[in-house]
Amino acid sequence: MTHRSSYFILICLTVGFAFLYIPILSMVVFSFNASKLVTVWDAANSPTLKWYYALFDDEEILDAAWISVKVAVINASGSVILGTLAGFGLARFRQFRGRFTLNAMATAPLVMPEVITGLSLLLLFVAMEQLIGWPAGRGITTMTIGHMTFSMAYVTVIVNSRLATFDTALEEAAMDLGARPLKVFFVITLPIIFPAILSGWLLAFTLSWDDLVISSFTSGPGSSTLPMVVFSKVRLGVTPEINVLATITITVVTAMIVGVSVWMARAAKLEKSAA
Amino acid sequence: MTGRGLVVALPYFWLLLFFVVPFIIVLKISFSDIDLAIPPYKPLLEWIGKNSLAIKLNFNNYAFLFTDHLYVNALLNSIKVAFVSTVLCLLIGYPMAYGIARAQPRTRNILLLLVILPFWTSLLLRVYAWIGLLKANGVINNVLIWLGVIHEPLTMLFTPFAMYVGIVYSYLPFLILPLYSNLEKMDWQLLEAAEDLGCRPWQAFYKITLPLSRNGILAGSMLVFIPAVGEFVIPALLGGPNALMIGRVLWDEFFSNRAWPVASAVAILLLILLVPFMMWYQSVQSRESAGAR
User: Is ipTM strictly over 0.95?
Assistant: First the structure.
């Protein structure tokens, strides 16, 4: 690259990352601000942890967080099973009836606007309740089903692309040596795609933990998730507690992402030295 | 059923039941009458007499969408907002993806991590952060007043400007990531060859890099444009009461007016509009992964 164009790229990167990170950093900084006005820095009494204590005293937020955790864990585990099956099928079975449909159905939720998915799921649940009496009312079950439907699409893509870059020779060798397909899957394939499955689980958890629109459509009375409570609080005005919530979220996510990527880099290095 | 069949049957039937069948129900309800009951619509099929089944298709919901200008305007405005946001994302995201792809491997991984990180942090909370930055006594106004650039706070929150900022900010990683994975596979020697043959850097970029990254540009743009058309959270929090976006209209019809048939008709209309783009995305994706093998 010439000097002039590399300066241009450097400036673009700096401005771009500043744009991505200034809002995030501002929430972290103002979570320690004493003033209730949130964005006006009260220099005399800050930094303070008072909003951190307030957050952990807020029953409404804690209850909602507990519901969100339950939905997110069940969703992540279910999506990983469904998504791994779909990703494995699409990557390893070249030809089967319904391949095109499965591929289309598994990737469409990635781009489908959430209001459409949410509305259609709710109408399905209402129609099913009229027809067969299940699900009786809406709540954690219906929300989890809704979340799994779009989360599994992400897991499918991750598992599929991991399998696409991975040679089938090992699996074939095991088959030739007489291992049954199920054993090949658990002994050879599963350990190889495990990093993909783990990141799929974490992503599915995060997607569910963050979701507002599909939850709002498919939840019932008494089952408000954390984003639903945050949304109603934010609509009434900015509250300092939300900055605290954001800071905690950012810390956890950063620790998780850095941890996983260090672990994955190490695993990739081991794989390379073994080969 | 064979073992193979069993593997794909579970996700297949799950998606069929919870992703495809719901659209058929939405289509059905978009043709039914609104009713003051629970659920608030009338059935399409009705037994009249002993052996005759009447089907009542009601096109009023659709006729209503086209007579009241609100809906058509919201749809057009959503397309405009999504399109402009996509272009802005490209202008900001392309140089970033390019810079990341050309960085040293070690720096590259760190930069990629920095793009992925906001994507994992709650969208709702990141949109909320902009309220704190943009409002009248918010961070940006305070800084500008302190610097003496302005004397009166600027009105930024609850304007179209705030909505664009929110959408570009939230969707930028979705554009950078596919574009990066496309640019990463590029053979940079082509650029050197072009420059050796007397091409200027900008010419080489325009004639080589840009055409070769076409699939990455298209895939990234679709990942921004399609969901942005139906976006609800960002216009609701940053756009103010006048931000007319179709996702918000659908939400209000459903939650505030309890007009389920009208909301369904809006959803069908939006879907008809977006399906061609989704199919385009799918074909770009399969071309891209075929090229990778």
Answer: no
CA distance A227 to A220: 15
Q: Which pLDDT band, with edges at 50, 70 and 90, does B1 fall under?
A: low
8 Å CB contact of B131 and A234: yes
* Domain boundaries along the sequence of chain B: 68-292
Contact B142 A235 (CB under 8 A): no
- Taking the C-alpha atoms of residue A243 and residue A48, their distance in angstroms, rounded to an integer, is 13
Q: What is the pLDDT of residues A208-253, one digit of tens each?
A: 999 999 999 999 888 899 999 999 988 887 688 899 999 999 999 8
Q: Which residues of A touch B264 (CB under 8 A)?
A: 119, 123
Q: Write down the pLDDT at residue B291.
A: 62
The single residue listed with the structure tokens 């319904």 is A98
From chain A residues 97-136, the ones with a CB under 8 A of any chain B CB are 98, 101-117, 119-121, 123-124, 126-127, 130
What distance in Å separates the CA atoms of residue A14 and residue A235, rounded to the nearest whole number? 32
Kindly list the distances between the CA atom of residue A50 and the CA atoms of A45, A240, A246, in Å, as whole numbers in the listed order.
Answer: 10, 10, 15
In terms of CATH architecture, what is B68-292? Orthogonal Bundle (1.10)
**A65 touches B at CB < 8 Å:** no
How is chain A split into domains, by residue range? 60-274
CATH code linked to domain A60-274: 1.10.3720.10
